[in-house]
Structure formats: structure tokens, C-alpha cells
Amino acid sequence: MKFATSIHCMDGRIQEPIIQYLKDSYKIPYIDTITEPGPCKIIADNIDKTTINSIIKRVDISINRHNSRLIAISSHYDCAANPSSEKTKKTQIKISVEFIKKNYPQIKVVGLWINKQWKVDQYF
């Protein structure tokens, strides 16, 4: 596997830790990044269909053109777009992982939590 896909917040503090975590943990050299402010909230709320469809379209490109076989979706501490509690954000991660798995049953999907030390924990 040469590519993985990461759906994560646009917040610059989390991008490098997520990419490095995926490269180290899964031995994948390239990570396609799909950024949105608070993507787990967007997916879990299931209101903004335009943005959800945009995320799916970009995941499709990663899977179909780069043969990505891993999708990670994450949330993080101190998110400006999603000022919910950590517990709520972790619930949103779970809902988002289930949504992505439903759309891509042939692909491994993991949920990540980035804590206040900017360390990545695999939550799902």
C-alpha cells in the first residue's frame, strides 16, 4: 500500500502529527489529505450535504486514482470549528468512522483523536 487518505481539520497544528502517525503506524509513504474545518462534526451532524458530498468525491479520487486502502478520520483538542467537549468529539469520530465504512466497506477505516499535547491516538 503506497497511499492512505486522511480526512482531518484544516488546523495546521494537527496536520503533520497525523501524517507522521499514519506513515509510521502503517508504513505508508504517501498520505492524501482532505481538509475541512471540523469534518467529524460535519459528517456526524449530516446537515451540510454539499460538504459531505465534496468529502466523498475527494475520497473517491484517492481510492480510485491512488489506490488508497486506508482512510483515517480525526478530530482534535481545541478545534475552532467544533468547540464541543472531548466526549462529544469522540462520539462524532465514531459516527464518522461508521459513515465512511458504510460508503467504503472494502477499505480499512480508522478514527483518530489528537490530544492537547498534539499527539495522535487511534480511537477507533
What do these coordinates show?
The chain has one domain (3-122): Carbonic anhydrase (Beta-carbonic Anhydrase, Chain A), CATH 3.40.1050.10. The chain is built from 4 helices and 5 strands, in the order βαβααβαββ. It has helices at 12-26, 39-45, 49-66, 86-103, and strands at residues 3-8, 30-35, 70-76, 108-114, 120-122. Strands 2-1-3-4-5 form a 5-stranded mixed sheet. β4 and β5 form a beta hairpin. α2 (39-45) crosses α4. The model has no long low-confidence stretch (mean pLDDT 97).
What general outline do the C-alpha atoms trace? globular
CATH topology label? Beta-carbonic Anhydrase, Chain A
From the alpha carbons, calculate the radius of gyration and give it in angstroms.
Answer: 13 Å
Total number of domains: 1
CATH class: Alpha Beta
Low-confidence stretches: none
Relative helix content:
40-55%
**Structural class by SSE content:** alpha/beta
CATH superfamily: Carbonic anhydrase
How many helix segments? 4
The assigned CATH architecture is 3-Layer(aba) Sandwich
H and E order: EHEHHEHEE
The chain-level mean pLDDT equals: 97
Quantity of strands, as a count: 5
How is the largest sheet built, in terms of strand order? 2-1-3-4-5
Quick overview:
With 124 residues, the chain is of the alpha/beta class.
